[in-house]
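Continuing the batch. This is chain 6 of the set; chains 1 through 5 are on the previous pages. Same settings as before, nothing changed between runs. Recording input and output for traceability.
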Amino acid sequence: MSRTDTERCIYKVSATMRDVKPEAYRPRMALIGLHNRSANPKVAKDGAGTSNDPGLREKSHDDLIMGSAKFTADVKQDLMLLENQLPYFIFDRLFGSYTESLDIKGTVEQFILKFFSLERTRKTNFRHFTDMFRCVYEESLEITPTLNDLSAKAIVKMENADNLSRAGVKFKTFSQMENSESDRPHHGNQQPLESISIRKETDDDYSLRVVFNRGCLVMSYFRAAEDSEIILRNVIAFEQSHAAVKPFTSNYINFLNFLITTEKDVEVLTEEGVLRSGMGSPRLVVEMVNNLNRGLKAPENSQYHNIAINLRAHYKSRRKRCWATLSKVYFSDLLTGTATFAAVFLLFLTLVGTVASVIQACKSFK
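Output for chain 6:
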């Protein structure tokens, strides 16, 4: 590890964040962190990291027998909670020399990444499992260099998804953009969007990429579900506590709070495929996104500042808003567009007939 082993990297979640949703920071099945070990009287005295509560022990046994997938998912979730951490170097030193005897293929880091179903584009020494998720989020910004820049100010004002949609802004995921670009012929020196720098991001839960280009807001889809909320909460809690890391994930949630303010915003983004909800109700999605931003320090900078400025300029353009209104009212689908075209064509024929009649009448008076 390039970082010193004594670097502080494990924190108690701040009270302002914990009060919003305490259960998001509390392990249920696997306890390994010193914070939980000292605070929870039910932790086993033998240091095994399991609970002495008979009900929980019985539940764990039943899960192992009847539903190992559910048990594994619960353990994975517990192992990434900020207060339930041990420095990564401890795992590396404990298991690094026994990978063959434990039948671990590759390095300890590769095994851990595979266990959490994560992929890394480059090798970065993460501090613990929570930081590992943060690193994956941060690496998603590298393909768009401008998103690695925190020199711009924080977002002050930005329109929500519904208002942007009314102004003609389209919403797409990067995978949707990839498909549409592959089907579109390019002539001469015309280049596909990237600027957008498309890459395959199907089912990517850990991406913070957002690009605004040609009236289209392109972003990796946002999955609104309990497990993804817990991951985000703990990564953000680490960013808020550890001054050595940049708050990219915190800024992403701040950006979403401008984008999603009403149930209509959720409906618009869901319809466009940018948001996938497991919450059951648009209202619950709004509450989840808004609550993720509660208790955080006010951002000083944002990697999305320029995007917000461009979205604001697009919304304030009268020409674009008028064209968007015409498109939605008269060309919303094939049937409506055909009817509109037919009506305009009939109006044109009527106008031609009227002009011809006037000309004929003028000639008869001569």
